[in-house]
Amino acid sequence: MISVQIFLFLCVVYDVYPVFASVGDRSEIYLNCLYQCLDLNCSSTEKFAEKQQLIKKLFQWDCPAECRYDCMWSTVDWFKKTKNTIPQFYGKWPFFRLFGIQEPASTLFSILNGVAHYSHWKKFRKRIPNEHPMYYVYFTYGVVCINAWIWSTVFHTRDLHFTEIMDYISALLAVITSTFVLLVRVFDQNRGYKSALIAFFCFAFYLRHVNYLCFVKFDYGYNMTVALFFGLVNLFGSLLWYFLRKYQQPHVWKCAATAVLVNVLLLLEIVDFSAFFIFDTHSLWHLSTIPLHRLWYSFAIDDCLYLIQMKKVKRE
């Protein structure tokens, strides 16, 4: 019952505004540039606001953020000339802005993932009657995942504290919902009391976790541990289900194939390299996941049709 959203959360860690500094933002050339820019341009917010383009104002590029962006590229030029290398800044490779969008490629590919998800989710709704016991389970999962891609788009458009938090908790909700779908499908596809218990424990944990992140401590390491746990439950659960049921339910191969492909594509996150204009490995990962939505929803449709057929056989 795994989809690309299971590991979406794991890859968000490559996007967050990190706690530790990087070579670029620690360099003397960057710090001197930043100090001078702030001193010269940011003493009067009114003057800065008068000169600022509307599109940048909409995306909340304030004076300090503009200084960081301009000094980043000045520092990149200096590193390329003197050391023939490109440094990271605040844990990220430097990106060219496009119409005020901070990471254009990842933003575009997040949108395309959301559109693909929505398109196949609509097909699922047309093919499967809403009285089917698994209909609203898959329906809810689709809504949660579309929401995750929306916040991924917002975050890549502009990396702010609020957009970072929303990206994190939306992706985490998709991961936990995926675990919920797997457990319900395997243990209680008729949505009895077991489904209610699974839902209670999954989402009670989610609410507790979000409360801790938002109001106690935004702990990246703890977040990663939680994501890995649910991701592994989904991965091995899906593969185990396939090996146990592959002859009775041959369509389950699509679920297992999605799980394997997601893990293979995650290698793009490991093989990290400096951004080329607007592209980096994370944006390419977003691009590579777009076709997987079709495979996963094809599985969901086949699975529901299989359950309908089994119900007819039992009646006969």
From TrEMBL:
InterPro entries: Per1-like. It comes from the Eukaryota. Keywords: Golgi apparatus, GPI-anchor biosynthesis, Membrane, Signal, Transmembrane, Transmembrane helix. One of its GO terms (cellular component) is endoplasmic reticulum membrane. It is a multi-pass membrane protein. GO terms for biological process: GPI anchor biosynthetic process. Residues 1-21 form the signal peptide. One of its GO terms (molecular function) is hydrolase activity, acting on ester bonds. Involved in the lipid remodeling steps of GPI-anchor maturation. This is Post-GPI attachment to proteins factor 3. It comes from Strigamia maritima (European centipede).
